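Supplementary notes for students who missed Thursday's class. We covered one full example, reproduced here. Read the sequence, then the structure, then the short commentary at the end.
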Amino acid sequence: MDAFARDLLAVFAAHASQTFAWLVLPNHYHALVEAPDILGLLCELGKLHGCT
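Structure (token representation):
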């Protein structure tokens, strides 16, 4: 698993109560998650994007 996918899953594990599906493609990704704190999840995803 590449580093981005690993880091993405770590964000989901920390901020989503359930991850139903995810897919990483060369230029984008899709994810279906249940997140009680959506703003917290979006903030962490923004930080992840800032690092890539």
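Commentary. DSSP finds two helices and two strands in the chain. Helices lie at 3-15, 38-51. If anything here is unclear, bring it to office hours.
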